[in-house]
Amino acid sequence: MLPNLPSSYLHLTQPLIINKQSFSSRLLLGTGKYKSIREAIISIKNSSASIVTVAIRRAYSNKLKGKSNLVDGLDWKKLWLLPNTAGCETVEEAIRMAFLGREIARRLGQLDNNFIKLEVIADSEYLFPDPYGTLKAAEYLVNKNFTVLPYVSPDPILAKQLEEVGCSAVMPLGSPIGSGQGLQNLLNLQIIINNARIPIIIDAGIGSASEASQAMEMGASGVLLNTAVAKASNPEYMAEAMKLGVISGRISYISGRMLKQDKAIASSPLKGVFTK
Fold first, then answer.
1. 63 catalytic residue (yes or no)
2. Domain containing 175 — which CATH number?
């Protein structure tokens, strides 16, 4: 395991606030695709993530079949469960899974956890979210007292509509889920970030720590990723790298980037220099 970041830097990143709930880390981590439960547990620990997302369908199915379950291996006194509706193709399916996810959170002792990562994906090839279905399901779940974090394409209009119906954060994709293509639509992502009054968490497509840092430097509130860590040659080290990338990008953003210039500007002063 790599050395931990000195705690003196951590206050610079500021906590992530979602619906009045405070989280020390701005990196959210998924739990799928790991080679083993042990590898997943160590990677999650190395990432220092506060929020961990779990696919409700997979967790519930494994429970029914009596299979070993990552959910049972994590310390939910230190982690916050973000159930997700991955695999749902319709509004009705997503709503049903959301209620099941809230019940799972209750069973883990998180009685006040109403969080749900909302995914409605009817496109089986590219896995792009259904914008109409997502908006419809989000509005319903908000009215049922869920803290809704919808996964969407980088559509500024839809992102604003989701904010207006009461979503607590919006999670636009950087590029197709699991693709590792990085941030492919920088203009739309920046518009979404600039227009938002709620947290914007870049979700999907990030493949490297530099891309995670880039998302944070744009002003994103956080980054959610899974495949980039789980499918790395060394997931445990990659989790650490992603943690540092997110922290670095956040500190860079709040520090304020220098303005770009058309011409070179000497870094050394021209006045008062020694001349023969």
1. no
2. 3.20.20.70
Mean pLDDT by runs of 10 across the 276 residues of the chain is 50 82 94 91 93 84 58 90 94 95 93 96 86 96 97 96 97 88 92 96 93 95 94 94 94 88 75 63
pLDDT digits (tens, 9 = 90+) for 156-170: 999 999 999 999 999
116 in Cβ contact with 95 (< 8 Å): no
- On whether residue 263 sits in a domain, the answer given is no
The Cα–Cα gap between 272 and 198 comes to 50
226 annotated to bind ligand:
yes
**Residue 154: closest CA among 202, 219, 97, 98:** 202
Q: Which domain range does residue 180 map to?
A: 23-254
Catalytic entry in 117, 144, 160, 260: 117
Q: Does 4 appear as a known binding residue?
A: no
H or E segment to which residue 238 belongs: helix 235-255
Residue 41 lies in a domain: yes
178 marked as part of a ligand binding site: yes
Q: How many CB atoms lie within 10 A of CB 21?
A: 17
Q: Are 222 and 246 in contact (CB under 8 A)?
A: yes
Question: What phi, psi does 117 have (nearest 5°)?
Answer: -90, 110
Rounded Cα distance between 261 and 148, Å, is: 41
Residues 6+ apart with CB under 8 A from 17: 23, 199
